[in-house]
Amino acid sequence: MMEIKNKIFWCGIKDWELRTFHGHELSTHRGSTYNSYLIKDKKTVLVDTVWSPYKEEFVEALEKDVEIKNIDMIVINHIEPDHGGSLDYLMSLKPETPIYCTRNGAEIIRKHFHKEWNFVIVKTGDTVNIGEYDLVFIEMPMIHWPDSMMTYVKGAAAVLSNDAFGQHFAAYSLFNDELDECELYQEAIKYYANILTPFSPLIKKKVEQIKALNLPIEMIAPAHGVIWRENPMQIVEKYYQWAQDYNEGHAVLIYDTMYEATKSMAYAIAEGLEIQGIKCKLFNASISDQSDLLTEIFKAKAILIGSCTVNNTVLRSISALLEEIKAHKFKGKAGAGFGSYGWSGEAPRIINRLLEESGFRILLEPLSFKYTPTAEELKQCRDFGERFAVSMNG
User: Fold this and answer.
1) Would you please indicate which residues are annotated as catalytic (active-site) residues?
2) 235 pLDDT more than 90
3) Do 204 and 243 contact (CB within 8 A), yes or no?
4) How far apart are CA 225 and CA 163, in angstroms?
């Protein structure tokens, strides 16, 4: 247990070995943490728990430090199993403990554990005094579950924000001012891009509401990763920026290829983009981490996707990526498709159609060539890249 602010203690778990999350959907190259917090005021308050595989270790540490019988109340900001998974085991030791959560939170807790505990339903603005401090609850629905909320510790100027402002990042320190800022922001933007992008309009409004409250904030302590102690509002400002059709001005080319024909097209298109001053990155989808690809798409202004045609459609890595793109609801981005084919050639048209259905602005008709592109056809690829760049800047 570590005191992170007067009377507020981190009592979570560092998961150094974690490499995938949400099943196998999200890559976590730097592990993660499950952050739970204990406030030792006149009342002893536990805020969130940890993932169920660590429930015994977690509860044992609490028992040693404060004894479970002395916990006066539990706040569940969000009941997803990585935060609330230990709740059932904990409640078996003191089942009458009041659980403070949103109305949606109580419903979801019931659905997870099939128990009827002592729920205290709270909404935005509700306050409970615990001694020197007051807890102020702020609902955060769909950021990123219906039950999500954050808890402001009035008197400590600390925000216990749950999933908002977090990262999947296990590090040697819990605090942002003691770590490599580049690594921290790599994980923070990846977390936002992969988990929170679909909720960007809600996030923008919620950040505006939080800023309008004009609360003194000296610390933001999320449920995953690093605690923002130095200039904590920096991550709030980043979320506000990321929530508004974010891009860094460059293009990303993502392709899959069977016999290098589509790859050669991708590299030629990239040359054309760069001739017109557009910086670009290239990725082979079949050997790239999809969570990292989605992060790159989030950061890009335009995305060109290439696939050869197999069985009248795109290759499977591209198909999966296009489904993810649609689900993430990226805004303000341009795109186009390309690829080689042997006899039918549908893939680039499918790419254009699916990108358009996902809200992308399609700048050019799809480009395709039969079998291995000739020198003249590669020149047409470079021209394609140049025309795309001109349209992208137009």
Assistant:
1) 22, 78, 80, 82, 144, 163, 191, 224
2) yes
3) yes
4) 10
Contacts of 321 (CB under 8 A, 6+ apart): 254, 285, 290, 293, 305
Last residue of a domain, one of 190, 221, 242: 242
Query: What's the pLDDT tens digit per position in 288-315?
Result: 999 999 999 999 999 999 999 999 999 9
Q: Say if pTM beats, i.e. exceeds, 0.70.
A: yes
Residue 394 pLDDT > 80: no
Selection from 282, 192, 181 nearest residue 239 by Cα: 192
- Domain region containing 134: 2-242
| Predicted confidence (pLDDT) per residue in 74-112, tens digit | 999 999 999 999 999 999 999 999 999 999 999 999 999
Q: Cβ contacts of residue 178 below 8 Å, gap of 6+?
A: 172
Q: Does 384 map to a domain?
A: yes
Answer yes or no: do 57 and 198 share one domain.
yes
- Residue 238's closest CA among 207, 199, 201? 207
Mean pLDDT for the stretch of residues 110-118: 97
Residue 361, beta-bridge partner list: 334
User: Residue 241 contacts by C-beta under 8 Å, 6 or more apart in sequence?
Assistant: none
Average pLDDT value over all residues in the chain: 97
Q: Are 48 and 15 contained in the same domain?
A: yes
Please give the single-letter amino acid code of residue 128.
V
Is the CB of residue 101 less than 8 Å from the CB of residue 122? yes
- Are residue 269 and residue 221 in the same domain, yes or no? no
Residue 119: name the closest of 79, 68, 70 by CA. Answer: 79
- Please tell me what DSSP assigns to residue 286: G
Both ends of the chain: CA-CA distance in Å? 55
Say if residues 247 and 300 touch (Cβ distance below 8 Å): yes
- Predicted confidence (pLDDT) per residue in 31-46, tens digit: 999 999 999 999 999 9
Q: Is the distance from CB of 36 to CB of 8 less than 8 angstroms?
A: no
Cα separation values, 356 from 243, 249, 360, Å: 21, 20, 5
Q: Point out the domain boundary residue: 218, 242, 266.
A: 242
Quote the number of domains for the chain.
2
Q: What is the pLDDT of residues 2-21, one digit of tens each?
A: 999 999 999 999 999 999 99
